[in-house]
Amino acid sequence: MSKRKINFITVCTDAYPMEYARKIITQFEKLSNFNVTSYCITDRPNEISDIATPIAPPFGIGKGWWNKMYLYSEDMPKGYSVYLDIDTVLIKNFDDEIINCIINLSFGRKISVVSDAIMWKNNKYSSSMMVMKHGQMVDVWEKFEKNKESLYGYDGGDQVWTGHQLNDSDVFYIDESFPKLKMNLKFHLGKKIFGQWDFPKRLPVGTKIVDCGGKPKPHELSYLHYVKENWHDVE
């Protein structure tokens, strides 16, 4: 029996070293049993073309994560795609959760995402992890492209604007079915003690993805064994 095909996509632009994209792509392909084709939206194609197909950022450098909006366009790879921010550490295989997302997409949902860890700007939609089917968010992309010049300074950025374009019935929130799948290092796992972050030495049972959005970043967290083994030691 042939393996189910899936696209894996990340974005590496501006100040992020390509090491970040290389590690998350390598780790996803290692952990997954899908037939994976990897892509990277980046301004440095020569640094990633040996392991992924580079895609030019539509708005160039300096526009940061607004380049993620391109994921919703008709120009993206056909079929189903998984997107993850590059400051994410992959711990265990999560194919079953991806398949559940795909099932929900086949029943009328436009996209599968996780809920924002802090409900930033009173917005539930997060673009840090997305499972999507080609073509199902094209209307959002077209509306953005038409108004992009006035949106780059939008309060809350790409995910808040996108969240405002969707109804609750359009979105499958992955964490509502799999609450331990993706844990935010700071807001779910860590706590601040006298101004310093304290992170757990062990992850809660069932955690498969650790989101290191904000600071500290994975390259600063080698003292945490789950980051060292699943990020620093990935080649």
Give a structural overview.
The protein is built from seven helices and twelve strands. It is α/β, with parallel strands linked by helices. The strands form three sheets. Strands 3-2-1-4-7-6-8 form a seven-stranded mixed beta sheet, with helices on both faces. A three-stranded mixed beta sheet has the order 5-12-9. It is globular, with a radius of gyration of 17 Å. The two termini are 30 Å apart. The mean pLDDT is 94.
Quick gist of this model?
Helix content is 28%, strand content 24%. It has helices at residues 18-31, 95-106, 138-151, 157-164, 174-177, 185-189, 225-232, and strands spanning 5-12, 35-42, 53-55, 80-84, 88-90, 111-115, 125-133, 171-173, 182-184, 191-193, 196-198, 209-211.
Fold blueprint:
Blueprint: E1 5-12, H1 18-31, E2 35-42, E3 53-55, E4 80-84, E5 88-90, H2 95-106, E6 111-115, E7 125-133, H3 138-151, H4 157-164, E8 171-173, H5 174-177, E9 182-184, H6 185-189, E10 191-193, E11 196-198, E12 209-211, H7 225-232
Parallel strand pairs: 1-2, 1-4, 2-3, 6-8, 9-12
Antiparallel strand pairs: 4-7, 5-12, 6-7, 10-11
